[in-house]
Amino acid sequence: MSNSDTMDRLRSGLIVSCQAPATSPLHDPAVITAIAQACVNQGAVGLRLDTPAHIRAVRQALPQIPIIGLWKQTLPGSSVYITPQFCHAEAVAAAGADIVAVDCTLRDRPGGERVEEIMARIQSQLGKWVMADVDTLEAAVLADAAGADYIGTTLFGYTEATAGLQPPGFELLRQIIAQTNRPAICEGGISSPSMARRSLGLGAFAVVVGTAITGIDAQVQAYSQAIRHPA
Question: Which of the listed CATH numbers 3.40.50.920, 3.20.20.70, 3.30.450.40, 3.30.830.10 matches domain 3-228?
């Protein structure tokens, strides 16, 4: 699938993040593939997947669906965990992702790698597009200058710089649209169809929904805790 075809298919659509905690029985390539197939059957135009194993399994089952791939890794000396190094991006690309998602916050990366260099190598050496996962406008502007193909609000509320802020980052989305030249993807904290529609109405290129659709572990935990400990 060409990059232009990928962009056309994702435009103004729903991308579902099909992920599960590593400790969950759902964290199995066959299960993630079934979840992904169910999402596509009901209208998802793209998928966001973690780990090369899950990307590879879903790519085999759904050869035509656009995939945003990443690899979450917790490494010493850095709080960056979404595709932190080029070797992780390389594995994600080899597994079949069309777009590689990379943490593009201003935090130091493990191994002293620079995000600008990682992005450039993904595009030039691997022939893939880059989704820059950011938390602030400053990070988005730098990602734009570095040549990111898409910019996502993914990490708003999940970093030291945005601690205490509650996603979704609608205001950050507005700022990215106004002050960068890249398609802005709204991701993080979208918990209802009306919120997804709102993000597109604000000008988002596409919207990613994860936990509200596929986060069985987190959803059941929330219900269970609310029942056991009512306010």
Answer: 3.20.20.70
Q: Do 100 and 125 contact (CB within 8 A), yes or no?
A: no
Cis peptide before 168 (omega within 30 of 0): yes
pTM of the full structure? 0.96
Q: How do residues 12-47 score in pLDDT, each as one tens digit?
A: 999 999 999 999 999 999 999 999 999 999 999 999
Contacts of 100 (CB under 8 A, 6+ apart): 68, 69, 70, 83, 89, 92, 93, 122, 126, 128, 129, 130, 131
Rounded-to-integer distance, Cα 221 and Cα 199, Å: 27
In the numeric block, which tokens belong to residue 158? Answer: 């999940």
Please name the residues in contact with 5: beta carbons below 8 A apart, sequence gap of 6 or more.
Answer: none
